[in-house]
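User: Design a sequence. Structure:
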């Protein structure tokens, strides 16, 4: 666990990004990796659940390293990590992407079959 905390601190120091920005990027990266690994659409919410699981594990490790829950930090970290993956998952669920372009329709998208 100490290695993980040291790695996170080194990443923050090396990148120069604020913790907030790192959480946003981590959430999107985990979402995309989960999408590729599971081969499930982001509209199925499976990749989003992976983001949630990894973030909850991260916050649990933070709790162990700090010795107590830091509620304000924890809740804001969860919010920053989940916001864009949640927005993308809902958007794809409500408006699924079309799978092909019909050459006879002048380049307009045709619905997936």
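Assistant: Done.
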């Amino acid at each position: 666990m100490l290695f993980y905390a040291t790695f996170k601190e080194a990443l923050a120091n090396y990148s120069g990004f604020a913790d907030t920005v790192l959480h946003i990027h981590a959430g999107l990266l985990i979402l995309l990796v989960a999408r590729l690994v599971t081969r499930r659409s982001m509209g199925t919410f499976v990749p989003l659940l992976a983001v949630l699981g990894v973030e909850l594990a991260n916050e649990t490790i933070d709790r162990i390293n700090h010795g107590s829950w830091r509620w304000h930090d924890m809740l804001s970290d969860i919010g920053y990590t989940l916001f864009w993956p949640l927005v993308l998952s809902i958007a794809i669920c409500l408006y699924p992407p079309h799978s092909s372009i019909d050459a006879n329709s002048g380049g307009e998208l045709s619905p997936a079959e």
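The two ends are 48 Å apart (CA to CA). The chain has a mean pLDDT of 87.
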